[in-house]
Amino acid sequence: MVDIATRVYNHKWKIDPIVRSLIDTDFYKLLMCQSVYRNKPDTTVAFSLINRSKDIRLAEMVDEGELREQLDHVRSLSLSRGESTWMRGNMFYGKRQMFRSDFMEWFENLRLPAYHLEKHDGQYELSFEGSWPEVMLWEIPALAILMELRSRAVINSMKKFELQVLYARAMTKLWEKIKRLQPLEGLKVADFGTRRRHSYLWQDWCVQAMMEGLGDKFPGTSNCHIAMQRDLEAVGTNAHELPMVYSALANTDEELAQAPYDVLRDWQDEHDGNLRIILPDTYGTKGFLDRAPDWLAGWTGIRIDSGDPATGAETAIDWWLSKGEDPTQKLVIFSDGLDTDKIIELHQQFAGRVRTSFGWGTLLTNDFRGLTDGDSLAPFSLVCKANSANGKPTVKLSDNPNKAMGPDEEIARYKRVFGVGVQEKMDVLV
């Protein structure tokens, strides 16, 4: 077990690059990358970093030279032989050779493309533009780098015993959460915390704590590198990026209305079983399900990632019933801003009605709230999203209008096309 406090104090992080590998990323990114490589390889996409927590003035906290050093380090990375062997030969979701040979040959030769970095009004403007399969792999490393550099900026002034106490308190805090989850029968809760983790070392510690504390209730981690190192299942399916880009490429309102289903038709061609999970909230869950083709009702489950989670699950249950499906055989994955209280509440509320699983993110791998003066290590909301495809803007509506993205006129158009009515605003915690 790594003594994190001592490592931080003795080395000031110099021996620890923030991103250690091209597979120090979320599993769903690699699955989506293969799908994009197969279906839309020539699409040009731009991504940009968005700090929703404007009070965290990253450009005033994080040294630009350090940021560039970490970004440049990621550009120097390539897939190692062991990592390639793990991807080619490992079993994922019960299937061998999940990643096809042509994709693996491409990935083994990949170096991430250039980035663009500027400062504006106390924030970093970090963006990436190029071939979709290449630039999409910047999202998770970019977020992990900014989050950890902010953590380092706060911790750098702490002395040895202060650091030991900080991490001891953080460990105790997480272990108390785990103890509360232990009695829940049938619980499944995975680590989804890569993108906004406190640090790589801390995420790895959290994963080991979950392994010991929850046993079979902990099905795995979204982080491929940690999954490989700890001999765990790598978990994850797909994200909003796919329908956002497919929709931006649509030429007419009719094509736009069909785009989210085109994504899932392409996905169905490649995956089955527990990888057939619908993410319905990109342009409003209810409208998505109301217009969904019948074949989607046969999919394994749904992931709820915005809005009120209980409402989203009830909407899914009603939809399955209307399609003649048995909800007790379906899987609902909750993944938005979860912490222990909400996990317990939702697990108990839907026990026996659906199968539930939880993707525990930022408040698993970065909950240092209340542990420093001024709450200087509290997590904040940082995202990196596709903002254009072939020069056309992308849009995300979400079930929470506070998560909406895109030009105002395009948001209005998408609301009209997808029949999105009045939505309830909810705080975006992380």
How would you describe what is shown here?
Its EC number is 6.3.4.21. One of its GO terms (biological process) is NAD+ biosynthetic process via the salvage pathway. The protein is an alpha/beta fold and 430 residues long. Helix content is 44%, strand content 13%. The protein has 18 helices and 12 strands. The chain has helices spanning 4-11, 27-39, 58-61, 64-76, 81-89, 101-108, 132-135, 139-155, 160-181, 200-214, 224-230, 241-248, 253-270, 285-291, 309-322, 340-349, 362-365, 408-417; strands spanning 44-51, 91-92, 95-96, 116-120, 123-131, 189-191, 277-278, 301-304, 331-334, 355-360, 382-389, 392-393. The strands form 3 sheets. It has a 5-stranded antiparallel sheet with strand order 4-5-1-11-12. It has a 5-stranded parallel sheet with strand order 6-10-9-8-7. It has a two-stranded antiparallel ribbon with strand order 2-3. The longest helix has 22 residues, at 160-181. It is globular, with a radius of gyration of 21 Å. The protein starts with a helix and ends in a 13-residue tail after the last helix. The model has no long low-confidence stretch (mean pLDDT 95).
